[in-house]
Amino acid sequence: MEPIRIAIVGVGKIARDQHIPAIESTPAFSLAATVSPNHRGPEGIPHLDSLDELLEKGPAVDAVALCTPPQVRYDLAVQALKRGIHVFLEKPPGATLSEVVALRERADKVGVTLFASWHSRFAAGVAPARAWLSDRTVHKVSIVWREDVRVWHPGQDWIWEPGGLGVFDPGINALSILTHILPQPVFMKNARLSIPENRAAPIAADIDFADAGGAPIHMDLDWRQTGPQSWDIVVETDAGTCKLSQGGAVLTLPSGTEHNEDLEYPGLYSRFGNLIRGGRSDVDIDPFRLVADAFLRGHRQIVEPFHD
Amino acid sequence: MEPIRIAIVGVGKIARDQHIPAIESTPAFSLAATVSPNHRGPEGIPHLDSLDELLEKGPAVDAVALCTPPQVRYDLAVQALKRGIHVFLEKPPGATLSEVVALRERADKVGVTLFASWHSRFAAGVAPARAWLSDRTVHKVSIVWREDVRVWHPGQDWIWEPGGLGVFDPGINALSILTHILPQPVFMKNARLSIPENRAAPIAADIDFADAGGAPIHMDLDWRQTGPQSWDIVVETDAGTCKLSQGGAVLTLPSGTEHNEDLEYPGLYSRFGNLIRGGRSDVDIDPFRLVADAFLRGHRQIVEPFHD
Questions:
Q1: Which structural domain, as residue segments, surrounds residue A104?
Q2: Which of A4, A104, A161, B84 lies 20 to 30 Å from A73 when distance is taken between CA atoms?
C-alpha cells in the first residue's frame, strides 16, 4: 500500500517537536510538504508559504495536519475538505465548538476523513486505565495540572487571545483523558477562572465537575508553577485507586505501577492512517465542550498581569 | 386518552405568564401541582414547596415542566428522570452544555421523554420561513434583538450570575430561530461582549457568525433599549428577502406579510405531548452551543455598572 502523502500546515513548536518525527517514523505516511509563512520544515522536503500555494502548485497530497493556532484552523480545514483532502486537527480542534461541528458535518457529507486529535489519550497509561475503570464505581476524582507557561508556551501570544484557551490549553489534555477513562459522562458544575489583567485568557482555574453518578471531580489548573511540574489524575473507586501521572504516561493501580515509553504522536498517526483507510472520521468534542462550559459558567477574577 | 398529569416547578414570571395558561388550554395535559418555595400557583391546584415533597407526598404526576432559573435545573431533571417522569426544560436547557448532554444520555437510557424547549421556534412566522428558505441560497443575515431588561427581567439577579446568560437570555431565542430556519449549519466567528462592571454577564453583544456556505451573519444584542423594542431577523437570499419581526410572529416574504396569533407555548405543549405519546425526546443544543462559543471566544469589555 502506497504511503499517505501528508503536508504539515503550521511549522511551530508542536510540529517540529512531535508531528514531523511521528510522521517520519510511521510507515503509513510520507511527509510530502511543509507549509508556513514563517518557519521552514526539514531540509529536502518541499516547503510552501500557504495552503493556497500548496493546492495550486503541489506537490499533491492526500492529507494535511493542521498545526496552526486554533483561530485559523476552520478556514484551512474547509479548503482541504473541499478538495477531498483528509484533515488531522491538532488540539483544540478549533476556536469554537460550532465550527468543529460544522466541519464534522461537512466531512461526513463529502466522505473525507476528519480527525480531531487528543494526543494525551494516546499516553501509555490511558488505555489500561480506561479498561480497568470500565466496570468500577467511581467515588471521587482529583486532577492537578500545574506547569510553567514560560517553559511550555514561550512567546505564544495567540494562546492568551480569545480563541486561545489560556491554561485550558494544557487543561484540555487532562479533560481528554478524563472523558476517555471514566465510564459515565462528565459535566461541569462550577469554575473560578483567574485572568491576568493584561490578558484575555485564564492563567489558572479551579473547577468542579461531576460524573452522571454524582462523583465529585476537582481540577486544579495553574500555569504559574515553577520547579517540579504536575500532570496527575487520581481516580478513587470501589476497588481502590487508579493514578495516572506524568500526563498519562505512568499508571499506578492497586496491583502496581507501569511505566511505558511515550508514543503519543505515533499513536495518533497510526489512528489517523486507520481512519483514512477505513473511510471514517473521529471528532469527539467532549473535552472542548467542558472547556466552553467553564468559560460560559465560570466566575472570573482578575489577577496580576502576566509578562512573558 | 387520559390527560398527562404535569407539575410546574418554579412559579416565576414565565410560569405565570405562559406555562399555566398554555397547560390549561391544552387538552393533552392537566395541571396536577405547582412547586415553589416562594410563589403559589393558581387557586385550587395542589402546591408543594419542593420537588422532593411532591415526589414523596404526591399528587402523582407523569411529567414536570422546569421553569426555575437554569442553574438548578440539572438536579431537578435527574430527580424526575430517575422516577420515570418526563421533563420539559425551559430555555436555556441548563447552565452548561455538558449537563444537558448528560441529561439527554440519561433520558435515552431510561426511555423517558426529555424536551429542551425553544419557544421562539413556535412563533407563527418561523415554520413558513423555514419552509421558504429550505431551497434558497443565503447571502447575508442580520439579527437585531434590542430590548429593555428592566421591563422583561425586573429584579432577576440570577440572569446576571454565571450560568445566567445576560443579554443572551433573549439572544438565544434569536439563535433558536436562526438555527431552525437556515438550510446550513451556523458557526461563530467573533464576538464582543459588553459586561457591566458590577455584573458577571453581558448587557450587550455584537457577534459575527457565518453559515457553512460562507454567508455572513451579524447579531446585535442590547438590553439597554428603551422605547420601541426590536426583535428582527432579516435573511437576504438569491430569491429576495425574508424578514421575521416581533420575535418571529410576523413574516414578510417577497410575496407579502403574514401576521398570526401568538401560539408559542401552546405549540410547545402540543409538541411535548406528542413526544411523550411517541416515546421520544427532543434535545437540540445548537442555540446554546453558539452562546457558549460567544463566551469562549468573545472579547470582553467592561462597561458602566447596571442597577435594576
A1: 4-119+265-283
A2: A4
